[in-house]
Amino acid sequence: MEPIGVAEAIADLREATVSALFAHSSGDLFVGTMPSGNLYRVRPDRTLQPLADQSRWSVRLWMPYGEMLLALASEGVLRVDPSQPSARAELMARLRHDWVGYGHIADKPVLVSANGQLLTMELVEEGIYLSPVLDAQTIARWGTIRWSASLPEGAEVQIQTRSGNTREPDASWSGWSGTYGEPTGSAVFSPPARFLQVRVILRHNARLNSLVVSYMPANRPPEARLQSLKPYTVASGKYTLHWSARDHDGDSLRFEVQLSSDGGQSWTPLKSADKQSNQQASPNDSPRNKSNAELQQLLLADLDASPDIPEAVKAQIRAQAPEMVEQMRKAVETIPVESAQFATPTRENRLVWDTTQHPDGVYLLRLMASDQPVPGVAITAVQYRVDDGEWLSAEPLDGLFDSSDEPFRIRTKPLPKGAHRVVIRVLRRGDPG
């Protein structure tokens, strides 16, 4: 509005109502709108900057608060730092009031609510944020926790977790974990469970920008249902069976039909689409208790079930299978009996085959890392490098590096012809660095 009474639009907000205005000493104009609940900054050059990611803040007043500016909304109190060119509105307190004014009592800022309440504001040195209970939908192993924080000088952020299997935390939940120290990725200490909660302690104006927790849900059993045969149906001659099945985790399903003629006391396979056993491994499955012929048979079966290995390489592995089995036998015999269950050789091994027939020079390696020296201590990472290249991360086949036996795979970049050296290193929890 000019002195002569001429009005000129400085911003077209396309909003129904402007509910709050504040003219800052910098020349910026701060705006709140209703009913959409947007917050804006209008600069002297008339550029418009949104201050909130979501349209939900019913701002009634803007209030100066030291170097900050507070937006008093019915849903809470937000703060904006006008000195920051790309400032964003941050929730400061979740106070649900219809604000009608503000002032000071004994140098303390006071907020006035429509219901007659006077609320004072006071800075504290420490604040605690308790996250909503996070639901993995089923029992899950918690992987790593990562976060990003803004830490001015003297500021500190502490992050802890706890887990349990009830929707509301109770005495059955684990205690709070120790403080996680590595923002780029710390292994979650809380035990496997369906639910997880995070506690964040902020000190001296620390600010948490983002937080991510990775997890691996337990594999849920598939569901199968017969469709063509009702209970107590008598069938004779040829009979076609129909069934439907689904897997909640999206896994590929394989089927075996079994028949019982003694009321379910014993079962005989009628027809199997999968010749490989799905039984859980037992101590008798250890390589120590198998003959060389059995080990070679297992090796070749796994090779046949690996479509990602080129046929030319498969042929050379088959030719070297006896030598590979003998290396495995010698390595397993060096492991104590008590730690030999599900053992994987941990001493240095070498296997050489000619890969020059592979046209594109890209190789997929699949291996097993095993932490035999300290059973039960989880492997947290596997890294590799080709020749003298940079260290790269391998991929865990089960999605997480969090146990003492970890299958993993690596995929190299295209390599030139000639000999190459692949170096692999395994990190476990508690290792320095």
Polypeptide structure, described:
The protein is mainly beta and 433 residues long. Helix content is 8%, strand content 38%. It contains 3 helices and 27 strands. The strands form 8 sheets. Strands 12, 13, 14, 15, 16 and 17 form a 6-stranded antiparallel sheet that branches. It has a 4-stranded antiparallel sheet with strand order 1-2-3-4, with no helix packed on it. A 4-stranded antiparallel sheet has the order 5-6-7-8, with no helix packed on it. A hairpin with a 2-residue loop joins strand 9 (99-105) and strand 10 (108-113). Helix 1 (292-304) crosses helix 3.
Amino- and carboxy-terminal Cα gap: 63 Å
Residue share in β-strands: 35-45%
The value of Rg in angstroms is 32 Å
Biggest sheet, open or closed, and with what strands and sense?
6 strands, antiparallel
In terms of quaternary structure, the protein is single chain
Q: Figure out the total of helices.
A: 3
In short:
With 433 residues, this protein is mostly beta strands. The chain contains three helices and 27 strands.
Describe the secondary structure blueprint for this structure.
Layout: E1 17-23, E2 29-34, E3 39-42, E4 48-50, E5 59-65, E6 68-73, E7 76-80, E8 90-93, E9 99-105, E10 108-113, E11 118-120, E12 126-130, E13 134-150, E14 156-164, E15 186-187, E16 193-203, E17 207-217, E18 223-226, E19 243-246, E20 256-259, E21 268-272, H1 292-304, H2 311-319, H3 321-333, E22 364-370, E23 379-386, E24 392-393, E25 395-396, E26 405-411, E27 422-428
Antiparallel strand pairs: 1-2, 2-3, 3-4, 5-6, 6-7, 7-8, 9-10, 10-11, 12-16, 13-15, 13-16, 13-17, 14-16, 18-19, 20-21, 22-26, 23-24, 23-27, 25-26
